[in-house]
């Protein structure tokens, strides 16, 4: 089975955002990944609810919204109303993660949990059956274009083992530094979804790049 691909709109040209979204609509992309950064949880600020709404107005692919923010519970409903189909919150930002996951599901969205490179897979043992997605950060979150962390392969393998052991249906998403050099190995390790930003949008033919990633 081919990998699913979620291009990160953060790497798009924001001066022609509608055109970039339409390109993704016409590509083989499975989702549009939307990175929300608050300058507190991560050392960068991206965009928020109004831009997410603007993306959604033109998008024909599901929005995969990744909240890299403190107090995500305060904004779940707003991002759902803005068009999020999947909402992922960070393990490290949620004091009551199970409650947050329940709140996302209550809103009718798929619920994901993202983990930073230093967070062990074992921390997900008591939540893995409740989530639809685990986003494994393969770079330190906050900036695009970073170098892929090699430990990610073994981390994905351990996560896949946990998912199978617990009978979870969670998909594994890998986010950060994804390209054709590591896509095949990530798939072999157990990844289901690849998030690619700079690699897609800085390529001469983003649609072809997406299609090639899917066949990795």
Tell me what the structure shows:
This protein is of the alpha/beta class and 216 residues long. It has helices at 17-25, 49-58, 76-81, 97-106, 152-166, 183-189, 198-201, 206-214; strands at residues 4-7, 32-37, 63-68, 84-90, 110-115, 133-137, 171-175, 193-196. The chain starts with a strand and ends with a helix. The mean pLDDT is 96.
Shape: globular
The CATH class name reads Alpha Beta
CATH superfamily: Aldolase class I
The class by helix and strand makeup works out as: alpha/beta
Short description:
The chain has 216 residues and is α/β, with parallel strands linked by helices. 32% of the residues lie in helices and 20% in strands.
